[in-house]
């Protein structure tokens, strides 16, 4: 896919979900921030797709990086596209990977394609994330990344136990799911979502900056899940996320059970 001119001026476009803005980063020659209705959605560096500007994106990348041997190509399903930061990163770090991105907003994809073209090896489909997951064959993917939002919230269609079970069905043995959420202290939504994944997966971890739990502002929480106990490399996840420029903590096992505080799984159809 050829670029249509990487102008270093801010680009505005109407998209299905609001107003998109692609803002050039003066500190990086080919860096761009993708925002929708003023909310940063993605950061893309066309010159260096391995550069991950957002802390939560680095946490998701860490789950994927440690979930399989280095440089081994993966088959990955991305639910939610944005600027396709992680598909670009996977293409750069694991050449030969087969990736499918499902994005519900065709107008956002169009403006991203014009200014921030993604690798030809990445297949992008316009559609509904839940419908795609329900229709896909079992055992199709080594990894699933869930980053689906309506505004600042995850839609109910991908938040219940039905979706969790459908996603678990798609993973190959040893595969992992990484889910991005936004939440406010004391992370009540994240606790429910972690309990929801536990209803379908045998191994679940919650990754968040400790300050998010104690603070007052919204932030991102990443959930990681594997089919059976032991699928997640918890010790290595904890070490890697602790070394990040924005350190995070991993809750897992008994620590996660205590952290959830009795939170129950979300049934389909309930907010």
Can you tell me about this structure?
By secondary structure, the protein is an alpha/beta fold. It is 30% helix and 29% strand. It contains 9 helices and 12 strands. Strands 7-6-5-8-9-11-10-12 form an 8-stranded mixed β-sheet, sandwiched between helices. It has a 4-stranded antiparallel β-sheet with strand order 1-2-3-4, covered by helices on one side. Helix 1 (55-66) runs antiparallel to helix 8.
Which terms summarize this structure?
single chain; 271 residues; alpha/beta; 8-stranded mixed β-sheet; 4-stranded antiparallel β-sheet; 12 strands; disordered N terminus
Parts with pLDDT < 50 across at least 5 consecutive residues: 1-7
Number of helices: 9
Question: Strand percentage, roughly?
Answer: 25-35%
Oligomeric form of this entry? single chain
How helical, in percent, are the residues?
A: 25-40%
SSE order: EEEEHEHEHEHEHEHEHEHEH
Could you tell me the number of beta strands?
A: 12
Give the arrangement of secondary structure elements.
Elements: E1 11-15, E2 18-24, E3 31-36, E4 39-45, H1 55-66, E5 75-79, H2 85-93, E6 98-103, H3 106-115, E7 122-126, H4 129-135, E8 141-146, H5 161-170, E9 171-183, H6 188-198, E10 203-208, H7 210-214, E11 219-226, H8 234-243, E12 249-252, H9 253-260
């Amino acid at each position: 896919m050829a670029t249509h001119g990487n102008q270093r001026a801010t680009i505005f476009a109407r998209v299905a979900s609001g107003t998109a803005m692609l803002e050039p980063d003066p500190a990086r020659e080919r860096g761009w921030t993708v925002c929708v209705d003023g909310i940063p959605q993605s950061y893309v560096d066309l010159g260096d797709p391995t550069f991950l500007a957002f802390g939560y994106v680095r946490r998701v990348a860490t789950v994927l990086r440690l979930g399989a041997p280095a440089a081994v190509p993966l088959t990955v399903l991305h639910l939610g596209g944005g600027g396709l930061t992680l598909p670009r990163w996977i293409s750069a770090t694991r050449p030969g990977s087969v990736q499918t991105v499902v994005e519900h907003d065709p107008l956002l994809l169009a403006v991203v394609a014009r200014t921030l073209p993604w690798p030809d090896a990445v297949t992008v489909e316009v559609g509904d994330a839940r419908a795609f997951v329900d229709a896909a064959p079992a055992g199709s993917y080594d990894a699933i990344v869930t980053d689906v939002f309506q505004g600042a919230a995850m839609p109910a269609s991908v938040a219940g136990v039905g979706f969790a079970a459908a996603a678990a069905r798609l993973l190959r043995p040893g595969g992992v799911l990484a889910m991005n959420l936004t939440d406010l202290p004391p992370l009540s939504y994240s606790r429910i979502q972690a309990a929801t994944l536990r209803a379908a997966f045998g191994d679940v971890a919650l990754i968040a900056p400790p300050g998010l739990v104690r603070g007052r502002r919204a932030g991102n929480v990443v959930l990681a899940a594997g089919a059976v106990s032991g699928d997640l490399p918890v010790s290595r996840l904890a070490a890697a996320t602790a070394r990040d420029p924005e350190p995070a903590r991993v809750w897992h096992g008994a620590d996660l059970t205590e952290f959830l505080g009795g939170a129950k799984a979300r049934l389909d159809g309930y907010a």
